[in-house]
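In this section we walk through a basic example: taking a raw amino acid sequence and producing a predicted 3D structure, encoded as discrete structure tokens. The instruction is simple. Fold the sequence below.
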Amino acid sequence: MVVGILGGSGLYDLPDLSDRREEPLTTPFGEPSAAPVSGTLGRARVVFLPRHGRGHRLLPSEIDYRANIHALKQLGVERVISVSAVGSLRDDIHPGDVVLVDQFVDRTIRRTSTFFGDGVAGHVSFADPVCPLMMDALAAGARAAGSTRPVHRGGTYVCMEGPQFSTRAESQLHRSWGAHVIGMTAATEAKLCREAEMCFAVLALATDYDAWHPEEAAVTAGGVVEMLHANIERARGIVGAALQALPDARACACASAARHAILTDRAAIPADARQRLHVLFGRYL
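The resulting token sequence is shown next.
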């Protein structure tokens, strides 16, 4: 079992990994944010990748998401846990709470969120973007880790472009949609993981109330980091426990999500496209 961990703001390493080694590599889509680090955590082989790069150098829309997800695929990853800082859009989701989201509203417009194109047309189902078995494991991990703060199962994540935080009007609009949390990265990762036939789930850490709460200060970068530092060990504990709860075999539809995705006549697919997509879709080409 090989599990990828995408670390976000505040989670830049997994110090509990044994047999650590860096895995410098390149991908057909460019360089990942940093060289992934592989190792062992419990019974799982883990590949950790900080999405913002070492030292948090990359804005959400500067991240090469395709390179990151492809790098994990090259290293044999079949399941991905995305650890993400989010703002709460609900009264009952407080800073410090954990949310296991299962839906997305993607408002990004500046980033590429598909491996298809440039000679190959493909479409995958994305109605249920989070793997239910992965979410089960994260919920079990939260219980096993003895989390003292609420863990909310289910919810909608609004993915905004950033890097600015929301205006008050935007925050109220997102609340009117019935959304639960807001962030800047996870929807793009979810789309690419689905195309790459990797199970995907989000461990969302609420750090603030965005800009809608009449009795709370609007979100600031400093406030986000302060709350993350207070909760990052808990997040590591949940991830570690979730790895032990994952079944060895994948009994979900994620593993064959792209089986019928490619619409392009195979004879019309250019050689360079076949090479670019070989790791992802070689068995279908």
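Looking at the output, two observations stand out. The radius of gyration is 18 Å. The mean pLDDT is 93. In the next section we compare this with other chains.
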